[in-house]
User: Fold these one by one.
Assistant:
Number 1:
Amino acid sequence: SPKYPNLFVQQLTLLGMLYDRQKQDSDHAIELLGKAITVAESYNDVDRSLLPVLYNNIGTVYYHKGEYDKSIVYIQEALDSRRNWLHENGFTDEDVWIALYTGNLADEYARKGDYDSAERHYLYCLDFYQRLYPNRGKEIMHLLDALISVYQGQGKTDKVRENVELFSSIQLKTFLQEAQGMTKRQRADLLGG
């Protein structure tokens, strides 16, 4: 039994993700992350906000393996456990982690060709960012780009056109916001002069 279970869980998590990303050893990564979950669930003094991260990480590893159904199960568990943690601690679902996990689920559904589920999840994320983080243009453009792909898969050309126009306007707004923070020399270099 680990003397410092929080630290042990964090170390197992880091090792698991290292094995997945750097060593391309997904099976070992899943084993390490599974041990981290077991420890996190077994000890009362482990920070419960770590569990959703662990579930999401295992879902990510399964995504890298191309096992989308398993990925969806774990990412859904991340979403559910994050919501439970938020509610137990007096918070609402207006949480960037909820949006992140929902976006990850949308990505998985899109990869599987379940465009209706992907659309529903992407629209939730898009609404979240537009309401709470309207100046995060890059995140919003990423979601719009994903939605455009979903609408193409569904054959909804009117929705594709509508979202391409919205994407273009946000892209211009984001560019102008970034340009305001640049020096005159940086702007001149960007514009080729």
Note: The chain has a mean pLDDT of 88.
Number 2:
Amino acid sequence: DKLVVLGQGLNDIKEGLWYEVDHVFQNYDVIIFDYRWEKELSFYWKHPMSFFRPLTSTLNNFLYPEKLDVAAVVNYYKQQKNYTEVIGACVCYSNFTFLNAQVESEQTGFPLFDKLILDSSWPSVQALSLQTIVDPAASTNPVSGRTPPLLTKILAWSLVHDSLELFVRNFLPNASIESFVKKLKCQNVLFI
């Protein structure tokens, strides 16, 4: 009676997590869910200029709604069945949300997870954003990037690059995975 909750990356789709289900977590109940913003994010990837519309409201509530999603999903399933072990296994953006939810739940005395597996963590939101200014495809494909050469050249122009960097440093939250790890009581954490 073990449960694993799989968390997707920033623009990953749930289907990409089925390898783990088929090969790693065969004897577990498995939960894969969408964050509340998933449909909007898919739209923004296809229509990037529309991304700036909700940006300010998103930044004001960074990570807050997502940690509520994680807590709601885990607590719901814990109420349905008495699990002996609950594992959070996540990638990229979900590392922030799962850690945030775990730290808050530990503070109430009712931790969500017994173990955490964190794959491909960003060091911080600003670090990822600064890297994305140079190579926007790096956040979705960190090994090879693959931003079209014309866009790479435009982003290298000092006016464009400096303006974007100014925006990132002054308006994006400087959330760091380190701040969550320092508060974490769970000792069973694997970083990949």
Note: Confidence is low (pLDDT under 50) at residues 43-57.
Number 3:
Amino acid sequence: LTKLSEKRLIPDPIDPEAPGVVVEAIDEMDGSKLIDLMNTLTQDQEWDQYLLGHVRDFLAELEFDRASDLTNRIQNPVVRIGALTHIMVARMENGQSNELKVLRARARVDLDRVKDVDTKAKLLLDIGRELGFAGVKGEPGMSIGLVEGMASDSGDLLSKAGLHARIAVAYIDLGNRGEAKRHFASAQNSAGR
């Protein structure tokens, strides 16, 4: 990515006697180097974040199809889930709740690609929280329930403890101190105090 901001001085292509001309280094790259650069960008977290920023811009202009198309170009499943969450919230805010089913299915496909249990739980809770704020009935409760299921199914005590701690924080955000306390206790028990 540093190549994108790099400048280079070259001889003036029109008048060789004139002083040099400052150009962007990317202008002077041959085709193979340009292809290598583009391949690097397709696997780059910063590029995905850049695309996510433009997804938000499209949503601000209510250009849902363009936001969705750009989301498909995001390679990192975690970043793409974030983009899909933004699209779901924007659709809800604009009275298009009928679009949520397909968007949730797309997010579910990406969630299945996330192998880290803690990251997956965080994503589920984030989706639930955002959709709950946007007025989706049953959220964030449904998402919390999915993470509770993950905690019940976990054979690893440290993962189970981390999941219960995340659930507890989600309940604190909802103002449900009783459930939060219960899940913090479960986290402590699973971690062996």
Note: The CA atoms of residues 151 and 163 lie 6 Å apart.
